[in-house]
Write a structure and sequence with these properties.
The protein has 131 residues and is α+β, with helices and mostly antiparallel strands. The protein has helices at residues 2-20, 42-53, and strands at residues 26-35, 62-68, 71-74, 80-82, 99-103, 107-115. The protein has 2 helices and 6 strands. It binds zinc ion. Ni(2+) binds at residue 2.
């Protein structure tokens, strides 16, 4: 199951980053860019993510996915289009098949929110009264 390996990779990466930052007690949310052509089903990913988080710092974390539409550019005529689903990979302007995928294969963690312990008590220095 592709989604499960993606979820495990995301959890690994976030847990490692959280482990490097001192005092992280829990991860609240992870924002992930998911390309339209990455072959990931969002529902299946959300389910796998929940399983992958169990017993880690990410337990209970929310997965927020941002869909990235697929875009392609024609090499001969430089026309750009949204490839859609199922993806259209021949140029709609000139019919060329020599095209380049610009976006849509992303699987990228863009943002992580975590908690690093209780909010710090006020540590303001006492104000020295100047006379
Ligand atoms: Zn073209």
């Amino acid at each position: 199951m592709h989604e499960m390996s993606v979820a495990l990779a995301v959890v690994d990466q976030v847990a490692e980053a959280a482990g490097r930052s001192a005092g992280v007690t829990a991860v609240r949310s992870v924002r992930l860019q998911v390309g339209e052509l990455a072959g990931v089903v969002p529902d299946a990913l959300a389910f796998s993510f929940e399983l992958a988080c169990a017993g880690t710092l990410l337990e209970g974390a929310e997965l927020i996915t941002e869909a990235v539409p697929g875009r392609a550019r024609c090499t001969p005529c430089a026309y750009e289009w949204a490839v859609g689903m199922p993806p259209r990979l021949t140029c709609p302007a000139c019919g060329a098949t020599h095209t380049e995928l610009l976006a849509g294969r992303e699987l990228r963690i863009v943002d992580v929110h975590w908690e690093d312990g209780p909010p710090h008590a006020s540590t303001r220095e006492p104000i020295s009264e100047e006379r």
